[in-house]
Amino acid sequence: MNGDETKLVLQDSASPLELIPDYGLWPWWLAAGIIVLLGIALIISIKMRKPAAANIAAAREAAYRDASAGLQQCLAADAREAAVQSSLILRKYLSIAAGDPALFETHEEFISRQDALQALTQDARNAAGDVFSNLAALKYAPEIPGKAAAEVISESRALLDILHHGFAK
């Protein structure tokens, strides 16, 4: 060999902190920004998913106009047909205006239900019970009743007015 021997020189070891890359605070700021943006997106999506609060008064007024027009256009030949059409129109009105399932129930189910028409005053509920009972008697009579169709429609129209003005505040 040449005589040039390389000596091993021991050096002080490097501090472990020097081996860790220094990124600063920007990753934390980036993570915080992403979290804030996700939170805002979540809040917006929740607000967009909720159905808009329905204007109950406008829905009741529209249902009243529809029911009133339906009763006005009712051209029944006899009392039974007038009772069937009037009952359907009034029950549809109640299903929209009062949120009551009266449209989908039989007369017996309707009168036996304790929570029927809770949105209405007691007088309006009583009037509804009486008129719906009369309509049911006309609809299910064994023979066609001798009552005039115009009279049945007139009673139904009066009940519609009572129901429309009979909502508890």
Net shape? rod-shaped
Percent helix: 55-70%
Strand content: under 5%
What is the count of DSSP helices, taking H or I runs of 4+ residues?
A: 7
Quaternary state reads single chain
Average residue-wise pLDDT: 85
Order of helices and strands: HHHHHHH
| Major pleated sheet | none
- Structural class, from helix and strand content? mainly alpha
Radius of gyration (CA) equals 38 Å
Please give the alpha-carbon distance between the first and last residues: 111 Å
Low-confidence stretches: none
**Would you report the number of β strands?**
0
Keywords for this entry:
62% helix; 7 helices; rod-shaped; single chain; mainly alpha; 169 residues
Structure at a glance:
The protein is an all-alpha fold. It is built from 7 helices and no strands.
Write the layout of secondary structure elements.
Blueprint: H1 16-19, H2 26-49, H3 56-72, H4 79-97, H5 107-112, H6 122-139, H7 149-165
Structural account:
The chain has helices spanning about 15-20, 25-50, 55-70, 80-95, 105-110, 120-140, 150-165. It is an all-alpha fold and about 170 residues long. The longest helix has 24 residues, at about 25-50. It is rod-shaped, with a radius of gyration of 38 Å. The termini are far apart.
